[in-house]
Amino acid sequence: MPKQFITGNEAAVLGAIDAGAEVMFGYPITPATEILQGWITKVELHSANAEENKKLQYLQTEDEIAAGFGVLGAVLGGNKAFTASAGPGHILLQDSLAMAENLRLPFVGIMMQRGGPSTGTVNFSQQEVNLAAFGGNGDGLRVVYSASSVAEMYGLTIEAFNTAWEYRFPTIVLGDGYLAKTRKTVELEKPKKNISSYPILEEKNRVIHLRNCYSNEEALGKILKKNINDWKKSAPQIIKSESYLADDAEILILAHGLVAAAAKEAIDKLRQEKIKIGLFRPITINPIDNAGLKKAALNANKIYIIESSLNQFSRIIKYELAGLENNFIEISKPAEGFTPEEIMKAIK
Amino acid sequence: MEEKIIKIILAGEGGQGIQTAAKVISAAAAEAGFEVSYIPSFGVEQRGSPSVAFITISPKEIHYPRFDNANITMILQQRAIAAVLKYIDAQTTVIFDSSTIQPTLFKNQAKKILGIPAMKLVSEGSLPKASNILMAGVLAQLLGLPDVSTWQVIVKTLGKKFKTEADKEKNRQIFLLGKKFKLEENSFSQPILIPQSGQIKIEGEGKRAIIIPERCKSCGLCIARCPAGALAFGQKLGLFSLPIPEVDLKKCTACDTCSRFCPDGAIKIKKIN
Amino acid sequence: MTNFSPKSWDQASKPHLFCPGCGHAIALKQLGYAIDELGIQKETALGIDIGCSLLAWNFFDVNTVQTHHGRTTPVMVGYKMAQPEKIVLAYMGDGGGYAIGLQSLIHAAFRNNPITVVLINNENYAMTGGQMSPTTETGIKTTTSPLGKDIKFGPGFKGPELLKNIASPKAFIARASVSNPIQLKDFLAKAIKNQSENSSFSFVEVLSICPTNWKTDVKQSFDKLKEMEKYYPLGEL
User: Fold this and answer.
1) Looking at the predicted complex, does its ipTM rise above 0.85?
2) Do C82 and A73 touch (CB under 8 A)?
3) φ and ψ at B36, to 5 degrees?
4) Across residues A303-329, what is the average pLDDT?
């Protein structure tokens, strides 16, 4: 694809289109609003032809609750459907995400994190990791991707649709307000092949009765056991991570999303000063690349966990790398971003 | 009453008053000075699905309301057996309604089985919905709780359930019946108070009336809505071992009202020829 | 079994789990007959809410999805967008429709989404043990209005009338009662046809009985229903 100069939100829309998305449900909320606007603009003003225009749909719903459940309805009907939201809207989406988690529905959501709790700021945070991975009243069988660049807003959105329809877990792409609004030069790569969607509330030879409510503990327990088994089996195919100059790193940074991008820049500068520092960046926060984490941490004697939340990321890391706590240095700044300079200063 | 921990399970059809029986007996045991814990199974509240109660009576503090094995298991409906089989083991005494239940499914795994033809007794006493009061009496017997104070606790707990003094007295007699009943030990009553399988078909007066007993919940809607007064509760039993309607084909006009109102698809009357 | 109950009923799930004498089952029977008569069993998709309506999850021989409380309407709106050729039904109670789900019900009517909503009104939250609902009338005792529902919580909620005010003129809106199953079936059929033939929204509220939570016998149940019909008038709006 030719080079483009686009924002993270615009990249998300392009990703949805190139993933074969057919319908979007959403409610305006900063900093994700442009995703809804962009999709609707594409459908109404920039469809390639009349056929495409007819096929693509949207609904600006009365609230995010309706948006999330609209996604589920469309998915049950076999459409690749998605929504985009942030902060308080992400909270309201937990109702539908819980239903998706129970019924294994391929819900795709793009969440552009903003400061919380409550209305907070519309700007930036990494405080929606818990919501995305473990929100709702289940045990967190949701796939969560954390995008660290405008290009990843495109690529991970496409991956989210394919993961969701292949493995049937609700899938979220976490971005943030800065990524949403940053306009950047990017060279995107179109996907080679997309998985097809299919109607879920319909089968050729039998009637489908779907329920998410059971009369007793054992009945639900059985369903959960199966879902957990599927999760464990699928995790190796789903996990994604990036190791940046971590092989010989004595100082390791663990970060995700845009904070990891800032860390990369800091690392480049520190490497010029001959400091052996590297980054391990989980791209899937859930399921997370445990083996990759362990390998990266092996030779490091200092491990910095840097995030724009209190401990939503570090809690996960500490669980995965239990035993290495002595080497951890947690740098947390809820709702505030890190510049590369800040990271350099903190490490030196 | 023995000074050890007694774990009791009550199981029956939803709507049979299992929880009422559990509530009154646990209240009576609490009144008698014991530590008591009672928890109902409270899955999605369905009336067509087994209702189970867990009661623990102990001389000392009880920490957890549920358990794996019961000392006493009381079963009031055939369909409830599956729900409580796993709690029955070599320490369990099972008391069952021998007028509606065949004990084959549990008799070998229990320590002892005791029967009482509960449904039969309460039907004869014209209080078909009082089997839970009867069973409260049986439990009071097994636990050695005193007659008078236990009945007083029952009255206090059930509050306005008894509409008249006569009604209250009838129930008290049922309670005492259960309290004094010599439980069947070796030879049990026959479980005849169960619905007939298949259809009951009668023809005449140019009409055919079919009732499916296993679908009939004895709700009485068809009887109440019949414009010709052709339906009334009869002798045969339905899903809950309660009477199902019978048809007077002379009065019936095959207007289809009964079928239209039946929530369960248990009745259909057609003109033939 | 066919003439005892609708062909579109799933027989494996019978006897069903609704209480003896439950109005839901009377309504579901007429809904089943409407589906039979319109010949739409294969094209129908049914969404059900949380509450006693959830007991209908395997009630019909029709693709059915149980949703979350108050969310049946938005799920079926989304489903219809993906499967516009299907006949899409959303089935709920007075809590799911007029309390937690009212927002979405209003907007579906407002947008004239071509779905058919059937709402069973028995003036209480039955599954959870009989709490007051928006449609509980003033003075009626429930577990959360032990002295009778106070006017400060609003009188009985008139849903069809509300929707009539904001729906498209092409919408079909009616109130039926389980006291008149023939009229009920007629309204259900008309409602479904408004979806399939006019691509428009349709809504049928069904006044219903709940002997279990009302603690009434059969006669008392129908007497109360008669009183309800005085306050909640039957007919097409």
Assistant:
1) yes
2) yes
3) -130, 140
4) 95
Asked if the Cβ–Cβ distance from C65 to A22 is below 8 Å, we say no
Q: Is the CATH code 3.30.70.3270 the one for domain B200-271?
A: yes
Q: Distance (Å, rounded) from C-alpha A283 to C-alpha A144?
A: 8
Query: How much is the pLDDT for C1?
Result: 42
| Interface check B68 vs A, CB under 8 A | no
Number of CB atoms found within 10 A of residue C13's CB: 16
Sequence ranges of the domains in chain C: 11-236
Short-list A203, A251, A215, CA closest to A348: A251
DSSP three-state, residue A268:
helix
Contact C68 A98 (CB under 8 A): yes
CATH architecture, domain B6-180: 3-Layer(aba) Sandwich (3.40)
Chain C positions touching B44 (Cβ under 8 A) are: 54-55, 127
Q: How confident is the model at residue B45 (pLDDT cuts 50, 70, 90)?
A: low
Confirm or reject contact between B51 and chain A (CB < 8 A).
no
How many C-beta atoms lie closer than 10 Å to residue A342's C-beta? 16
Quick one: pLDDT band at residue A20, thresholds 50, 70, 90? very high
> Can you give the residue ranges of every domain in chain B?
6-180, 200-271
pTM, 2 dp:
0.94
- Rounded to an integer, what distance in angstroms lies between the CA atom of residue B221 and that of residue B258? 8
Mutation site for C-interface testing, chosen from A56, A57, A76 by largest number of C Cβ within 10 Å? A76
Q: Which domains are delineated in chain A?
A: 4-186 (3.40.50.970), 241-347 (3.40.50.920)
Token pair in block for residue C220: 């008392």
Binning pLDDT at 50, 70 and 90, where does residue C64 land? very high
Write down the architecture of domain C11-236 according to CATH: 3-Layer(aba) Sandwich (3.40)
Confidence of residue B47 (pLDDT cuts 50, 70, 90): low
